[in-house]
Amino acid sequence: MDAVAGQHGDERAVRDEVTAARRVVVKIGSSSLTTASGGLDADRVDALVDVLVTAREAKEVVLVSSGAIAAGLAPLGLERRPRDLARQQAAASVGQGLLVARYTASFARHGVRVGQVLLTTDDVSRRAHYRNAYRTLDKLLAMGALPVVNENDTVATDEIRFGDNDRLAALVAHLVHADLLVLLSDVDGLYDGDPRKPGTRRIEEVAGPADLEGVEIGSAGRAGVGTGGMVTKVEAAGIATAAGIPVVLTSATHAADALAGRVTGTLFHRTGKRSADRLLWLAHASTPRGALRLDAGAVRAVVERRTSLLPAGLTGVEGHFAAGDPVDLVDEDGVTVARGLVNFDARELPRLLGRSTRELAAELGPAYEREVVHRDDLVVLR
Questions:
Q1: With bands split at pLDDT 50, 70 and 90, how would you rate the model's confidence at 65?
Q2: Inter-CA distances, 235 with 16, 139, 167, 301, Å
Q3: Average pLDDT for the chain
Q4: Beta partners for 184?
Q5: By three-state DSSP, how is residue 283 classified?
Q6: How far apart are CA 330 and CA 294, in angstroms?
Q7: 61 by DSSP, 3-state: which?
Q8: Is the Cα torsion angle 173, 7, 220, 49 positive or negative in sign?
Q9: What is the rounded CA–CA span in Å between residue 342 and residue 322?
Q10: Which end of the chain, C or N, has fewer beta carbons within 10 A?
């Protein structure tokens, strides 16, 4: 089928992966919610809400919404999105209240209650926090509320930021065990070049990475109020599909068609199966606070046999981190082979290097007869 013509092709055609989905995460970008000056566009918000309310007749819906920083620009007298973190946080503080108030009022027209959920990477890379985030979202859905998720920009630091809400949406889809992720922006799909140039074509389906070879993927959106672009959307689609979640990428104006399963935008087919929940977050949402250098035997044990990392396999420690922080595991050449949550502070590890747990327990006490990184808190990256 001609890719562009297929945007509104056979109206009888449906995508079974979409119609079969019972829990869906929908992500909306800043440029689809705001005016050129940065304020919220009430008509755009209402149009999205109307679509989501209709979708809720057959599906559970979680909304990941950008727009907090953009909504706070005009009230603070800012002409454009600031580059420094402090002013971004100030804009988010003002804008997040405006954003949720707008959603609350819009959904109230249909008798639907919303619940705000703000996340940082720390909330979901640590075991207890991750379980709590899942329970909160799952309970909101069970009680008939619609969760509105955003990054907690007001308190997030550069080290614990998701960076863009496309990636956040992919990880939330995995967190809530969604059957589908829908990414809405100001572009109606993935094109094989700049969609503003003649001769470019929309890619209707992506079955795997091979379908993207040679595709020129653009960066910034047209409105200039968000952080993402087509690159982040394709990356988010890769995260979700590798975890067994199909993705539809289209414009906000085609949201109703996308959620109804009609052929619109670009469909990314699932390429993998669900993995252990937190490991996806550890691989894609965590920022390592340091590195542990492994000898060749430890690399083989971790990568090939998927065992825990013991002190005996350590040859070096880099960075400043506390117990529970994410760290990279690197081989003798400095290549990262895995990432995990470390059980010791950086200052404790130098005296443990290359020693057996039995020896350490005898000298330092039973608290040292344990793994440096447990296999349940470790994800292999190569």
A1: very high
A2: 23, 29, 7, 30
A3: 86
A4: 28, 250
A5: helix
A6: 6
A7: strand
A8: negative
A9: 8
A10: C
Strands (E), 37-156: 60-65, 114-119, 146-151
336-341, strands of its sheet edge to edge? 314-319, 290-294, 326-330, 336-341, 378-380
Q: In a 10 Å sphere around its CB, with 0-12 CB exposed, 13-18 middle and 19+ buried, how is residue 4 labelled?
A: middle
Q: Beta-strand (E) ranges in the chain?
A: 23-28, 60-65, 114-119, 146-151, 180-185, 205-206, 247-251, 266-268, 290-294, 314-319, 326-330, 336-341, 378-380
- Range scoring the smallest mean pLDDT among 93-97, 138-142, 227-231: 227-231
Distance CA 176, CA 201 (A): 34
Rounded Cα–Cα distance for residues 258 and 18 (Å): 8
**pLDDT tens-digit series, residues 206-243:** 998 888 887 877 654 444 444 447 888 998 999 899 88
221: number of Cβ within 10 Å: 21
Six token digits for residue 228 = 């993402």
For residues 353 and 204, give the distance between their C-alpha atoms in angstroms, rounded to a whole number. 53
CA angle at residue 169 from 38 to 266, to 5 degrees? 90
Residue 257: C-alpha distances to residues 234, 246, 264, 313, 334 (Å): 20, 16, 7, 54, 48
How far from the centroid of its chain's Cα atoms is residue 49's Cα? 22
81: which 2 tokens? 């999105």
**Which residues does residue 27 pair with via DSSP β-bridges, in sequence order?**
64, 183
Q: What is the DSSP letter of 176?
A: T
How many H helices and E strands in the chain?
A: 12, 13
Taking the whole predicted model, whether its pTM rises above 0.90 is answered as: no
- Tokens encoding 242: 């590798």
Q: Give which of 66, 89, 70, 86 is closest to 78, Cα–Cα.
A: 70
